[in-house]
Structure formats: structure tokens, C-alpha cells
Amino acid sequence: MSHAPDAERVERVAAALLDPVLEPIVDMVATVAADGAGYDVRAVDGRVSFRPAGGGGDGFVETLVEGRNPLGDTATDRFVPLADERANPWPTRTSQSYPHAHVSIA
């Protein structure tokens, strides 16, 4: 019995989660790329695909960006100091940053 995800099912679920009606509560959907060699991250307004850089390094290479890159803002100091964080208790996906997102997803 195979445990590989059914690509068609993954696409249906991702499309459902990225319905504009859910935009206020779904930041992004991350999946393993169809070829298994990388990752796809989609949001209602954009997409990025990335894979390990290879060569023994620990970086990543973005191979496709369409629209707004959901992982494009990796600032580690968003909503710093604490007063800024408290002033923004529910940041939107476009005002949020995702530091170390590539590593976390991989």
C-alpha cells in the first residue's frame, strides 16, 4: 500500500483552502512538490516553489514565484518591541513575516 499523496486530491484540498472566502483565516498552504524534490507554498494572492540548494549547503533556491511570494518577508524583528506585538494581536498574512519559513516547511 502506497502512502504517497494523491496529487489530484492534494490539489482539490489546496484549492478549497485557498478559496477567497477563507482568506481571513488561511495564510498559506504548503505541500511537497509534485516531483517530490521541493515544496510549493500557495496563498490566495501568490505562490512560491522552492527546493534545497544542493551542493551540501543548507540554503534553498526559489524556482518559481507567481504573484506575491507568501514567504517573501522573512524579517525576524516584525512587531518588535513587545508594545508593537501587543498593538497587532491578529496580523494579516500580508503584514506578517515568516522568518526561517523555508527551513520550517522543509
Model regions low in confidence, pLDDT < 50 over at least 5 residues? none
Overall pLDDT metric: 91
Q: Helical residue percent?
A: 10-25%
Derived from helix and strand composition plus strand pairing, the structural class reads: alpha+beta
Please indicate the count of domains: 1
Distance separating the two termini: 25 Å
Q: Tell how many strands the DSSP assignment holds.
A: 4
Tally the helices. 3
Estimated radius of gyration: 15 Å
Strand percentage: 15-25%
Order of helices and strands: HEEEEHH
Q: Which shape, going by the Cα principal axes?
A: flat
Lateral strand order in the biggest sheet: 1-2-3-4
Biggest pleated sheet: 4 strands, antiparallel
Brief synopsis:
The chain is α+β, with helices and mostly antiparallel strands.
Task: Name the features.
106 residues; alpha+beta; 3 helices; flat
Protein architecture, described:
With 106 residues, the chain is α+β, with helices and mostly antiparallel strands. It has one domain (7-105). Helices cover 21% and strands 23% of the residues. The chain is built from three helices and four strands; from the N terminus they run H-E-E-E-E-H-H. The protein has helices at 7-17, 82-87, 101-105; strands spanning 29-32, 39-43, 46-52, 60-67. The chain has a four-stranded antiparallel β-sheet with strand order 1-2-3-4. The longest helix has 11 residues, at 7-17. It is flat and about 45 Å long. The mean pLDDT is 91.
